[in-house]
Amino acid sequence: MNRLLLPEQWRRLWAVGLVLLAALGARPAQATHLRAGDIRIIADTTANPVTGRYFFTLITYSVTNQPASTDDRETIFFGDGTTSGLDAIVRESQTPLANNISRNVYRFSHIYNAPGVYTLHYIGENRKTNIRNINGGASVNINMYLSATVIVNPALRGNRSPVLSAPPIDQAAIRQVFLHNPAGSDADGDSLAYKLRVCQWVPGGVASVRNNTPVPQDVPVYRYPNDQAASVSPGGVQVPFGGPPAPQVGQPATFTQDVVTGQIVWNSPSTAGDYNIAFVVEEWRRVAGARAVKIGEILRDMQITVAPTDNLRPILTLPRDICIIAGDSARGVVRATDPNGDPIDLTAFGGLLARTPVLQPTGYERFRATFRQKQRTAPVSGVFRWRSTCADVAEQPYQIVFRASDNPAANEVPLIDQGVWRIKVVGPPPENLKATPQALGINLTWDLYECQNASRIRIFRREGSGNFEPDTCNPGIPASAGYVEIGDVAKNTTEFRDDNNGRGLERGKTFCYRIYAEFPLPAGGKSLASAEVCAKIEGRPILLTNVTVERTGVTDGAIKVVWTKPVLASGAFFTPSGYRLYRSEGINSNPTQQVGATIRNLNDTVYVDANLNTQELAYTYRIEFFSSKVQGGTEEILEQPLPASSVRLEGAPTATSDGINLTWQYQVPWDNTVRPTRIYRRDPGAATYTLLTTVPGGATGGTYLDKGTLDKPLKKSQEYCYYVETNGEYKTPPIGPLLNKSQEKCVFLATVPCPPILTLRPTNCDSLAALPYFPNLSNTPYNNRLSWTLDENNPADCSTDIAYYRIYFSATQSQNLADFQLIDSTTVKSFVDRDLATPAGCYYVVSVDKNKRASAPSNIVCQDACLFFVLPNIFTPNGDGTNDTFRPKVASPIIRTKFTVFNRWGRKVYEGDKNPLIEWNGTDKATTEGLSTPSSRVVDGIYYYLAEVEFADFARTKKTYKGWVEIVR
């Protein structure tokens, strides 16, 4: 049988057509009609759940006037290497909507066989035509990609993905603000984050997928709707709008999405047509004791239709955000008016309105909210009602999106206004909290907490009563209230004993308490705090009052320790009883070494600890009082007040030796801030100390600079001795004044070396032009020459007897001495820093005497890099190893050089920025930079260049060099 052979050119055209058809994913059964869509996920929570099974709902929006078979079946890729099979997912329903839009719903399930992170993929073929911001409007052959992340994790059993209640189809008007909120909610109480993305597609469509794993990409030539440069919406400007975000009227249009609420604001459209946007909704779960963890993500693709209209947006008025206690009802009246007097429809979106009332595992029902509009004639109003329960307590508020849509005359575009109303639900306060003192503790009791879906009861204490008032919008107990958390118990516990973790509460003090309930993650949340209750521990506590240095010495130092005698409200302590004193070295140390024998006489409250090294060390003490639980028993009751340290004084001459810096520190349980600290000094030759001055007391220490007085300055080559005496008190019970002395500290005020006055010889940058051609900076070493003299009047009595000098350097132009490093020392008054790749850097010098005392730093001197860059007018890229590349004559470190070459007709033939020294080999721009092949060489002749150079000097100077070069081979 004979066959008719196609001409050769027909065969080629047919092959090209097949390739294009495959690349554009144009399957014959599909049409170009898709507008928008997204995917929802829920883990298996049926009566007999299957591990790893998830249920999915795919919702797409398409053009209505399509054949009946369009979209009746779809293909899904599950992300685990499997697929539903080609066109295996059958459409469950199709609902025609207004404006030539249909809503398509597909439901299906899948079982994942192992824990992991999976991405479910959908490729819709294809988008509707003439989407202005995709591929320059040629969107007819661009498919629509949607995805949802599935995290299979036993710990996330029952997790549900976010639900976006507002359809991803909306209308906008030219020169009017466009608003849209997806009305996202999460039934598990997870936090949601919204982020704009470029619309996605899979080149080649379903037929191109390999290994059942689509590889999505940004759609071709995507522009955000407000993009001015792309002429998607030329002339779009911001118009007046109440925000957020606040507009800059007359400035270029903006397109934003709030990361928390999801609110999209386009201010404002200028060109009619269809626009598509995409955004991801991230699902974040709060984890106890750790940062929130991202557990899912869905990608929604949305369409906005912009049209010209004389209609004006309606104006929506919402009630203020509210906070309610679980069990209370929320009621809000939503109102709207229309500037044109058009009828208005009010609608509400959000998780509260989409609930199916069911009994929760906690035993609490979750009720569905209602919203009813009274009339459609403007002005209109609607009433929102919702009854909360304990199951609704959450850290984040519930969001209800209200939308006012007008109904204008024929041929006008309906417009909307919308806003978000937030309702926060907190737990009720625990009731009937009582405090009863017993021995050295306080017993707390309260009623069984009302919401037994809570997780813990948290308990807080403070000394004395506070003025904290619980706030329904800020549940729990803030740190500013002055309470400290002392414990927590299970939700069904109704008692707690506070004995200060076994150390006992202090006698004579009043302690006040509040408690609140905490709710489990992921929703979280807290209750209001309970009413405050207080109780007093009668009697007098044992408290350390003095840790004062009696004698300063290396081996014979002494510290006197004093404490108060404990007293019961009535009666006497059971014996055996007594004191144990403990000591440790240092200020913030833990005293564990017992000092001396146990003291049995309770009236003996003073102990002098001798044979210490108080000259070099500070010491911390802890007193422990013990008594028997029963007379003559062996089981002890211990009282352990907070430890206290001695006062540690340090002193050192100033850099110029014209004064003495004193610093002291301590760690004590009493308050040293109320009364001043006294400073005593013993002058050279004096036998006793005299009061020098007083300074305000500090919580943990203080400082003072002693420079003497104008008529009696401190003298060089003399020794001055000091001690300080703090003056403190206890407020409850009131005890004071508490006087505690430091050890003695003697400081020798030596004569300091005179500091240098430094100079740096500048580099002769002009001389660089005479150097031979060099492409390698290491061939051009620089030398920085330093010299100095001594500043013999700084201070006036400084010493000129210098042993040597230290030279410091910084590669940055810094005035901060911490940025410098010691590079060398010398005994002469000059120094040459040799063989430098760049002269850039800063220096200072310090004088040092024979006792290794250093002077104040000299002045800082700096030198910058020379900006020397010269390009030749000829090079010969003939491969002979000589002058084969075009490179600059340069003596400066360079960060980057962008080099562009044009031929005599102005066509760009080369561009590169990878090599700061250029090293162009005469190839055309189409070749890989730095590589050369005979076919890629430019022809011999004259070319024009533009070199944009960024130098590595301190200022990061940028210069542009223009010129010509001749290529000769």
Automatic annotation (TrEMBL):
Pfam family, any one: CHU_C
InterPro entries documented for this protein: Ig-like_fold
Highest taxon of the lineage: Bacteria
Protein name: Gliding motility-associated C-terminal domain-containing protein
Native species: Hymenobacter lutimineralis
